[in-house]
Design goal:
Strand content of chain A: 5-15%
Largest sheet of chain A: 3 strands, mixed
Strand order of the largest sheet of chain B: 1-2
Distance between the termini of chain A: 63 Å
Strand order of the largest sheet of chain A: 6-5-7
Largest sheet of chain B: 2 strands, antiparallel
Helix content of chain A: 40-55%
Mean pLDDT of chain A: 91
Number of strands of chain A: 7
Structural class of chain A: mainly alpha
Radius of gyration of chain B: 20 Å
Number of strands of chain B: 2
Distance between the termini of chain B: 84 Å
Shape of chain A: globular
Order of helices and strands of chain B: HHEEHH
Number of helices of chain B: 4
Mean pLDDT of chain B: 90
Largest interface: A-B, 30 and 21 residues
Low-confidence stretches of chain B: none
Helix content of chain B: over 70%
Shape of chain B: elongated
Structural class of chain B: mainly alpha
Order of helices and strands of chain A: HHHHHEEHHHHEEEHEHHE
Number of helices of chain A: 12
Radius of gyration of chain A: 20 Å
Oligomer: heterodimer
């Protein structure tokens, strides 16, 4: 009898502490939607994608005034020029992405069944350049961000729908690795992505109002005042932001478009499924 | 006799300082190797911390420059300041060990909302 009680107790404990790997993508999205709906009943639908600006009237006024005269128009024009400029070998970007630039952004991130890996838009831009013997762009800012932002801009209004094929264990594993990354504490400050963008979203970290994870990827690449002030032109990709976040918690960042951040993007972008692309945008 | 005692004292002191410096250097080298190993181990599981030994880190000042903790240890050792060198080597080792431990503890991280 004692043995029986111990076994039941052990089973109960193991259930209580088991990781949340049993949930699916749809369940994860539903859980986050419910969590934020309860947390901020007044923030409706798409406004969640506006992050801090959906939560603070003061910040919203500043953001709206920036959007009246967006600081990134010139870079978008460069992005368009990139699309229209053929490679030295005569091929065009259409040889990699198809003829319609408005149908590019929303295909990423996706699972590449043949190579068994997550593909990101910026990763594939670099891949396309290499395949055409072009010198690849830098991975996080500059032309890659202008080009990616212009492609995202062409897709504005489309609904994000990142698909994780549930019948492909490798794809599910990549999604779960991305989710584990998002919820795992890292760095000297021992903070996870979720600590800031789920549990403490809406609170301040110094002068910054922490944004909710849902809607994050709708407006990337972004133009950030912080990046402009640090001597750059303000533009950066999602993986630039990942690296910055990791550094802020005093963790060593991973390589842009490597396995870790690509898997993270797979999960992260999934959490914005059902929301519309609205890129690029201004952020503090 | 007095002169002889003086010479003996100087020789003894010199030998004493030299052997102490050698001991410090040996202790520092051991600690440095342990710090490298600890951070290699953390790096293998993706758990290295920003300031432990990254070339781009600007965390500890040595001379006019700011650098990673381990680079600061090396910088102070090169100056012969083994006390500071050991302090930073120990700190870098600790960051490597904690980074590894953190990854192990967070293996099954998932939502808790």
């Amino acid at each position: 009898m004692k043995k029986m009680i111990l076994m039941v107790l052990a089973a109960g404990l193991s259930l209580g502490t088991s990781p949340a790997f049993a949930t699916t993508q749809a369940e994860d999205i539903a859980a986050l939607k419910a969590y934020f709906a309860k947390k901020w009943p007044d923030v409706k639908g798409e406004d969640m994608a506006n992050g801090a600006y959906a939560l603070s009237e003061d910040k919203r006024i500043n953001w709206e005034s920036m959007r009246d005269f967006p600081p990134f128009e010139d870079q978008l024009a460069i992005g368009e020029e990139i699309w229209n400029t053929p490679f030295k070998n005569g091929n065009t970007w259409a040889s990699c992405f198809g003829d319609d630039p408005s149908r590019v952004r929303n295909r990423f991130p996706h699972w590449n069944v043949r190579d068994k890996k997550v593909e990101t838009l910026e990763g594939n831009i670099i891949q396309c350049q290499k395949a055409n013997d072009e010198k690849p762009f830098k991975t996080k800012k500059g032309k890659i961000a202008y080009f990616s932002a212009w492609l995202a801009n062409q897709a504005n209004g489309q609904t994000i729908n990142v698909v994780v094929p549930q019948d492909d264990p490798d794809a599910v594993a990549a999604y779960e690795a991305g989710r584990q990354f998002f919820y795992a504490k890292r760095g000297q400050l021992n903070l996870s992505c979720a600590d800031c963008h789920v549990y403490q979203a809406g609170l301040f970290a110094r002068g910054n109002l922490l944004s909710p994870v849902r809607g994050h990827t709708t407006h990337f690449p972004v133009w950030r005042g912080k990046w402009a002030r640090s001597g750059g032109d303000g533009f950066g990709t999602l993986h630039r932001r990942y690296g910055g976040c990791n550094k802020q918690v005093r963790a060593k960042p991973f390589k842009a478009h490597g396995k870790e951040y690509s898997n993270l993007e797979y999960f992260h972008a999934s959490m914005s499924n059902g929301m519309t692309i609205n890129a690029p945008d201004y952020r503090e | 006799m007095k002169q002889l005692s003086g010479i003996v004292l100087v020789v003894l002191l010199t030998v004493g300082f030299a052997s102490s410096a050698l001991a410090d250097e040996a202790a520092y080298k051991k600690l440095h190797a342990e710090a490298v190993a600890a951070n290699d181990r953390a790096g293998e599981v993706g758990g290295e911390w920003r300031d432990a030994r990254d070339k781009k880190a600007k965390f500890i000042k040595c001379g006019d420059k700011k650098m990673s903790i381990l680079h600061a240890a090396e910088c102070y050792a090169a100056k012969g300041d083994y006390k500071s060198a050991m302090k930073y080597a120990k700190m870098a080792k600790s960051q490597g060990e904690l980074g590894y431990q953190q990854v192990m503890e967070q293996k099954d991280a998932g939502p808790r909302h």
